[in-house]
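Could you help me review a protein record that somebody else here produced? Do not assume that whoever made the record got everything right. The record follows directly below this note.
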Amino acid sequence: MRVFVTGGTGLIGSAVVAELLGNNHTVLALARSDASALAVEAAGAEPLRGALADLDVLRAGVAQADGVIHLAFSNDFSSSDALAKAVAEESAALAALGEELVGSDRPFVTASGTPYVPGRASTEADPLHTDGPVGGRGRAVTAVLGLASRGVRSTAVRLPRTVHNRGTGGFAGMLTGIARQSGVSGYPGDGAQRWPAVHALDAAVLFRLALEQAPAGSSWHAVADEGDRLLDIAAVIGRRLGLPVEPVPSETYGTLGPIFMTDQPSSSAHTRQALGWEPKHPNLLEDLENIQP
């Protein structure tokens, strides 16, 4: 299958591209810079120059592909305005990609986040949140899944709060960066809140399985660790960096403060049973041991 991939040079995207190429697929990857284009070529894929906001380029990519995997997102959490802009850009891109696929029965796999459900681990059957700081993403992904009724084999791979590889990535990576800057490995609240996590290489396998097998309108959880306590994450970071581990105000995390305060475990039991997905790489706490002082 020839697959058009957005976000193909990021932590997750590079793993997805390698997974596709290693399983007899070819890849056309969106590249927004010369450096990205070179990285795509070095990986063995073909670059398509353009950014996520270039809707005509996205349509051209779809026209050349048998399926689409969308991973690109600006990840600018510096302010509520920046986050809103990123969500709006992605929503427009998803709409353009989806419309180009209508009536083709081709697969369209988009990335999403695991939902938060009070009092229990979320499952694949739980709906995405459509309000709050990232509610726009939930609405856009829900619209993508709705394309199942219009001849698109649309599916969503829901990613946990931390997708990691070699000690970097996701919300845990943000904690590490803030710890380096502040001199404290901090956590909001009492640190008992749990975050789900997955290794990027395991997540990549699930994206491929969804592309190849998943029925239209389905959602899947790329969750290896159902929930690691934030205090335990901060403790490993602090030990690796030689820093004290202390509670800090939720405001330390800006726009993401309310999310960081939330206990949000998630299950992947259905995904494992239905698609035969089984994580094999180090869990988050093990992988954080790769943090360099």
